[in-house]
């Protein structure tokens, strides 16, 4: 069995994304792919994205809720990169994707740099300038969303596009109590509160800062941080309308 190179894996996954095709898990062909190497694949894919003109605008956390971890069979949170090409302009329908799924998330915009290690939820929240509701559309490059932790890390945690809602508030409310109703075509399909995200989305932000520090990196001022799906993700069929309604953070809608 041939060992893959980091550069080759990054190229293959990005090409699958560009072509809108899915494939088997990388670990089936590269059993030696561990989490650390998977982050190197992710970083190489970011380098390729930047070299084609995309701008780095933040990070996303994934698998920070039990609902998501249980569904995907992966029991650890993951981090991935966000670029400006992933922002879904308001009113645009989804671009063609492989098998899009939508998930509601609490989103932070950072007012100052946040550098681990040792960041707590309380100190993390001091770096936040605004809190939003958002919908992330995930689109794994692996068939049937079947992957291990290392697979999805290499695949930039299934990133495709996301939309941030129109209501941004200063931090201060108890985000563990912030509720969200997830609707498809007007019917409620799921609900959760911010407590689903590691007890509080501030914990997810602290985890992001501390994990970045392990890689010699920090979260930069102005960055967007998606804290991870609060509920399980729902498939977005062509023509479907998915809405996330938050208690204090307004509503966000995406049409398939
Ligand atoms: C991995 C990405 C997970 C989240 O918010 O949990 C994610 C996946 O479920 O495909 O973005
Ligand atoms: Mg997500």
Can I get a quick summary?
With 256 residues, the protein is α+β, with helices and mostly antiparallel strands. It is built from 7 helices and 11 strands. Helix 1 crosses helix 3.
Which tags fit this structure?
globular, single chain, binds 2-oxoadipic acid, 2-oxo-3-hexenedioate decarboxylase, Hydratase-Decarb/MhpD_sf, binds magnesium ion, Fumarylacetoacetate hydrolase, domain 2, four-stranded antiparallel sheet, 256 residues, Fumarylacetoacetase_C_sf, EC 4.1.1.77, 2-oxopent-4-enoate hydratase activity
Distance between the termini: 40 Å
Structural class: alpha+beta
Continuous helix count: 7
CATH class: Alpha Beta
**Largest sheet, described in full?**
7 strands, mixed
Q: What is the H/E string? A: HHHEHEEHEHEEEHEEEE
CATH topology: Fumarylacetoacetate hydrolase, domain 2
| Mean pLDDT across every amino acid position | 97
Q: How many whole angstroms does the radius of gyration measure? A: 17 Å
Low-confidence stretches: none
Identify the CATH architecture.
Alpha-Beta Complex
Q: Give the number of DSSP strands.
A: 11
What small-molecule ligands were found? 2-oxoadipic acid, magnesium ion
| The CATH homology group name | Fumarylacetoacetase-like, C-terminal domain
Q: What proportion of the residues is helical, as a percent range?
A: 25-40%
Strand composition percent: 25-35%
Envelope shape: globular
Number of self-contained structural domains: 1
SSE layout and pairing:
Layout (H helix, E strand, L loop, with lengths): L5 H14 L6 H4 L5 H17 L4 E7 L3 H7 L5 E6 L17 E10 L10 H6 L1 E11 L10 H6 L4 E6 L14 E6 L2 E7 L7 H14 L9 E3 L7 E2 L5 E6 L4 E5 L1
Parallel strand pairs: 1-8
Antiparallel strand pairs: 1-2, 3-4, 3-8, 3-9, 4-5, 6-7, 6-10, 10-11
Helix pairs in contact: 1-3
The structure holds 2-oxoadipic acid (OOG) and magnesium ion.
